[in-house]
Each structure stands twice: as C-alpha cells, then as structure tokens.
Amino acid sequence: AGGEDKPDPTVLTMANGNGDARELEPFAATVARLSGGTLRVEFENASNAGTRDYERRIIAGVKAGTTALGWVGSRAFDDVGVSSLEALHAPLLIDSYSLQRRALASPLAKRMLDGLDDAGVVGLGILPGPLRKPLGVARLRRPADYAGKTIAFQGSGVTRQTLHALGARGAQIPSAGRIDAYDGVEQQIGSIASNRYDEEARYLTANVTLWPRPLVVFANPKAFDALTPTQQSARRRAAGAASAATLAVVRTDEREALGILCRRGTRFVTAGDADLAALRSAVQPVYDRLERDPATKAAITWIRALRSELSAQPHAPASCPASAPQTAPSAKATPIDGVYRSDVTVEQLENTRGYESGESDHPGNVGQFRMELRNGHFKVTGSSDGVDQEGAYSVKGDVLTFEWNNEGSFSYRWSLYRGLLTLRKMGPGPTIFAVHPWRRTGDAKPAAGRTPIDGVYRIKTTASDLRAIDSEDVVPENYGSWTWVLDRGRFTYTQRNGQARENASGSYTVAGAIFTLTIQRASGVYPTGAAAKPGEQFAYRWSRYRDQLTLGPVKGKISPDVHRVKPWRRISDAP
Predict the structure, then answer these.
(1) DSSP-derived 3-state class of residue 269
(2) Helix (H, G, I), strand (E, B) or coil at 307
(3) Calpha distance 156→161 (Å, rounded)
(4) What predicted TM-score, i.e. pTM, was given to this entire model?
(5) What separation in angstroms does the CA of 118 have from each of 74, 81, 295, 494?
(6) DSSP string of 183-199?
(7) 559: Cβ–Cβ under 8 A, 6 or more apart, which residues?
(8) Who is most buried in 73, 398, 416, 543, counting CB within 10 A?
(9) SS3 for 280?
(10) What's the maximum distance between 2 C-alpha atoms anywhere in the chain?
C-alpha cells in the first residue's frame, strides 16, 4: 500500500518448432529470475509445423523480426551458411551427456555463438539436448547395414554427408514426420517413443550416438538492442544458468521414453568394437571436409581432448530400466546412510569455484535440499527449479561415488562428525554436495513400495467422446470429470457430471505393462444403474510419457473403454 506499481514485464515470443516447450521452460524461468521479473518468455509452439525446413524458417523469422526469439538444433545453421557450430554435431564425436555438458561449459560455446552474426541473429546461448541414435527396420550396426537404405533425418548438411558416407540416402522429414516409407530414422529416444516410430522400425542401436541435438537460442538484433543492459545480461546468462535444469528434463524424458519402448518390445542391439571402428572409418570423409575450416578443426580437437578425459567413465548404452544400474536396493548399509539437510543460497554459491564461469550459477544449485542415502540408493529433493535427482551410490573407504543419471561417476571424499557430513569434490560433479556440510536429520526409511504410475490423474470426457469410439456404454455414469489417485497399491477415483457421480476405492497392481484395478467399495448416484461393484476387476495395458498416462485393452480381460477414451493428465506426484 502506498508503493509504486511495478511496470508490466516485457514479453518476448520464442518460436519453437516442437509441439511443447518442456525443454525450454528452465530457460524461460531463468530469464524471468535473472531479469528481476522484467522479462517474460512466451512460446509459439509448433512453429512452421509440417514443413521439412521448419528450423531454417524459424531462423529466417527471427532475423526478420517476426518473433523476438527462436531456438533450433545446432545442425540447422549448416544450411544458412554458419559453420561455427558444426563440431557440436560432427558424427560419432559427442557421445554422452557428460561430454556434451563439458563442451558447452567450455570457452567453445562463446566462440561458436559469435558465428551466428553471419545468419543475422544474436546468439544467446546453447543448452544441452538429447542424444540421437539410429533406429532401423533392420539392424543398423555397421556401414554395410546402411548400404542402399533410405534414412529419415531432420535438417543438416553434416547429417546428409554422414548418411551418404555410410552408403545411405537421406530423406528430410518435418518435426514428428512419418517414417513408414523409409528404412530407418536418426532420432532421440524421447521422440521415437512419442512419435511411435518404433511401430515402423523395431531395432535401436543402443551404443551408437550419432550426435547430440543441442538447443541454440538466439534473438532478433533489434529486439535485443531494445532491452536494457540488465535485461540483455539476463538473456545471455540464462542459458548457462539453466543448463543443468534443462539437462535434467532431457534425461528424465529419455528415461521415461526408454520404459515405454521396453514395454512395447523395442529391440536394443549393440554394435561391436569392429562395427564401431568401421563406422568411424566410414565417416572420415566428413571430418576431412569439416577440418578444412581452422576454427572447426580446433573445436573438434578440443572436444576429442575432453572425450579422452572421460574415457575411463564410458557412457552407458540405452537399455531397459530393469537392466540399467539405477539403484542398488539389495546393497548393504553404508556408514553414512541416513537423511541429511543442506540449505544453499545464491550468496553461498558465489564463493564456490566455477560460479563466474556459469558452472555453478543455475537454479538447480539453490534450494533447501534433502538427501537420503539408503542401501546404495540416493535421492535429492528441494531444488529451487523443482528437479529431483536420484540414482545409485557406493562407499569405499573415505570415497563416496554417485551414479548421476547414468552420465558417469562423480566422487567426493567424505567425513562424518557429530551429525555433519562433509563432502569434497574429487573432480567434476554437482556443486550442491560440496557447498557446506550436510546436517543429519534422521535415519533412512525403507522404500515405500511405489509403482511407476503412482500419482494423481484427471480427464474430462463427454458422451460425444464415447460415441466417437463406438462405445456401447454411452450413459451418464461413464463420462464427465474423472480424478484417479494411485498410491502404493491403493486407489480412489471420482466421477462427476450433471446427472451422475461416483466414488470408488480399492487396490491395484502394476506388473510390467499391465495395470489391474480391483474395486472394493463404491457409492454414488447412478441414473441408469451402471454402478461399479465390489469385486470387479479391470485390466489395462499402460504407458506413460511425461505427464500423460495412456491406457489400452488387455486381451481376455475387462478393459472399460470409458477409461481409455483419452490419455490421463498427471497433475501431482502424491495425494
């Protein structure tokens, strides 16, 4: 009261070629934070949808001022005369998230962004993106497997040249374009699952990463110049500050998509050492062309040096969760098992090594953290960016080693004295563990027995939705606003519309891809008598991608179509 009104924030529209902006949301949140709330990024999703050259069109649109901001994969600048980014997507070079993260945190990124001036846009930053792999109708392990094949891809001169060097022909497709006419596709695991490419091509080469798809963020020069110096600084710093949160989103999407592919029966194949050597030999002509540019040659040399430093920690190939080293529930208790707290502020981060370079300066390193260490499994919650982390850990002597999102091992020397756990970095690793000691607050509790689909879900359906799928049960009890709560084997659900309402509860099990509900209690208002009855059992084939739970029928079981007419939207992790 009595204060001055704050001016409305400046809204900047970002052209996004994908259908959602999940990967860019950490960047947008960081821009708002670093600008003190004076800037807001809004997304124009599905920009230039359906066009093969949608990324080139986005670059042209930002240059012309149609939108203030845009992002594309680094590959897209090949086709607009910018060569400074080519080392990022050189074939078979960056083959892990750890290597990509280190390359983007190095001075390379700034020099690469300077090259965007030639495209008439202002480079703001490069965010880590998903790793692209070959998916084929038949196995794609060695150059001979590519010979004569037609492989779908998304824009890049380097991609075309690589496929040609392998003996294949490239066919450019739009974002989410169909691949049923081709012999395979180069694509990230998340898009393979969400676009259902695995229905056309069943073989994923698990240990071959063709290249990453880093997200290059850029601005219209006039729109950038119109900002205040503080706002310009916020936009330039935002990519580095949002890098860890963006990578966490990318890795989470990949893990969820892997689970979907495994349940659908995708076949994971492995290229042998001789196959990998043959692939590298076959793409050498691409490197001969790339290295004619001195700056690109220097960047490739730099990345190879970084890669050699990480060779002792090879990137784990894509695999089904059951065989991935995610947790170690059967491991023995360690001397430091327990629950710990550590509150980290921006001011404390400013005193850590790496803050000035942007390595520590991001929302993921600030928060009121809770860390649980239990029998070889850890979980860290409380980050200000809302991204939790979990995985496996081991203790050998005074060395504590975390397996962080399958990116590699990060080790710390530990000491525990009177409830204070102190960790000191022994190389690369998340900063939050070593800012200051962790205070022990309790013992680690046994696992709660959660299932992969625990959470709260909602859908809204209508009688028209049921008629559209030729349902035989178009009655008021079977449509409306539905809410399901699934919690460690127990469920409740409610259904509401203007004529009917239902409350039901009971138990459920998840066995692989099969989700089975058993009704134990039900009550409500049933105008036509179509009530759920205690003892009834419903079974569904399930898949979950991001926040959508999709249900399908199970042969020989009762799978009511009223619950399958639309995907369920996950609105919460817990009741």
Answers:
(1) strand
(2) helix
(3) 9
(4) 0.64
(5) 14, 7, 15, 58
(6) SEEEEEHHHHHHTTGGG
(7) 538, 539, 540, 541, 551, 552, 553
(8) 73
(9) helix
(10) 77
